[in-house]
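Fill in residues.
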């Protein structure tokens, strides 16, 4: 297996390797501790056209997993996140800036019927061959933060229980187009 940090990505659409990727988040509970969770169903693609890079992603909100099924059911209910009103999270990049193995990814995040610009700090993990599969794999880590209130996500009486800031943690491995 060979791995390189040279960011020479082949033109075309790179597809997600879902077995080696994750979409996670962290939110404060009662202002004193953190609850971590993930979304288990998502799709993302990275399209390369020369120096132009576009990233798109869609996350199924119903795939929320915080490790507690009762809590997940409550968070997905109309009391909190309201999965019927907000079935997906969608992202489309508007700007990619690179500086060696690091950079920023800015784009439009849509949750329900609200779209806001967000920026993620990105670290390029490298390119590597994965035995038994065609094409190289490219790994990226992206972190950022959103405010749920910016997307109209308010919890009424439960507002004081959960923080407004949500930290986003993405680890994504893409497979090269063949």
């Amino acid at each position: 297996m060979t791995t390189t940090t040279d960011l020479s990505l082949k033109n075309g659409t790179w597809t997600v390797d879902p077995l080696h990727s994750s979409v996670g988040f962290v939110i404060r509970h009662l202002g004193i501790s953190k609850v971590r969770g993930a979304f288990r169903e998502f799709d993302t693609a990275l399209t390369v056209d020369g120096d132009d890079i576009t990233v798109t992603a869609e996350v199924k909100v119903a795939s929320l997993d915080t490790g507690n099924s009762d809590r997940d059911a409550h968070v997905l209910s109309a009391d909190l996140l309201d999965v019927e009103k907000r079935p997906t999270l969608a992202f489309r990049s508007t700007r990619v800036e690179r500086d060696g193995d690091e950079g920023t990814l800015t784009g439009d995040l849509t949750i329900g019927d609200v779209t806001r610009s967000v920026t993620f700090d990105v670290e390029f993990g490298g390119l590597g061959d994965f035995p038994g599969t065609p094409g190289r794999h490219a790994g990226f880590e992206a972190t950022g933060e959103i405010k749920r209130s910016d997307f109209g996500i308010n919890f009424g009486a439960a507002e004081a229980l959960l923080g407004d800031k949500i930290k986003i943690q993405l680890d994504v491995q893409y497979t090269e187009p063949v």
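The chain has one domain: 3-175.
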